[in-house]
TrEMBL record:
Organism (species): uncultured Leptolyngbya sp
Membrane topology, from the record: Single-pass membrane protein
Stated name of the protein: Type IV pilin PilA
Keyword tags: Membrane, Methylation, Transmembrane, Transmembrane helix
Pfam families the record matches: N_methyl, Pilin_GH
């Protein structure tokens, strides 16, 4: 073997040992990972609040449906959850309540009062409304506060012909 070939083989052997990542490459990977984490982290942390808010939507939806049935069977709205035959477990996130309309028992309001500033309060209404033909019908709405806050959501606007969410709330699902 020639001496030139031996030197070349030794250099090739050293090159193979020096393979790896440079400091710049590692730094770039860390910076990109940090940017991706900063983008994804707020969305990830918000999932816990969304899961807790599903509880309120589910319970108020159940109250609205039960109140409709109660009204059709007894020609009046129930003023307690017990009258509706529903049992909700105690919640660390929301307090639930029922209020009846002051004029002629024409509507029932169901509140999901938020116990945390990071959760949105909800309000549901079941009301008797008059159609254009003069027939009575039952209208329901479930409204979500536009912002997270502790306390109750603003009561929907209720009149003789319709029920609509208040300006500080929006219908659930929109």
């Amino acid at each position: 073997m020639k001496t030139g070939q031996g030197a070349w083989l030794l250099q090739d052997k050293r090159r193979q040992q020096e393979q790896g990542f440079t400091l710049i490459e590692v730094t770039i990977v860390l910076v990109i990972s940090g940017i991706l984490a900063a983008i994804a982290l707020p969305s990830f942390l918000n999932q816990a609040s969304k899961a807790k808010q599903v509880e309120a939507k589910m319970y108020l939806g159940t109250l609205n449906r039960a109140q409709q049935s109660y009204m059709l069977e007894r020609a009046q709205f129930a003023d307690t959850v017990t009258q509706l035959g529903i049992a909700f477990p105690n919640s660390l996130n929301y307090n639930y309540s029922i209020r009846l309309g002051s004029v002629g028992n024409q509507y029932a309001v169901h509140d999901a009062k938020s116990l945390s500033v990071s959760l949105r309060p909800y309000v549901g209404v079941v009301a008797i409304a008059q159609s254009n033909t003069g027939d009575a019908r039952i209208e329901t709405v479930l409204c979500e506060s536009k912002a997270a806050q502790q306390g109750k959501a603003e009561q929907p606007v209720i009149d003789a012909t319709s029920v609509d969410c208040a300006s500080s709330t929006k219908p659930v699902g929109q």
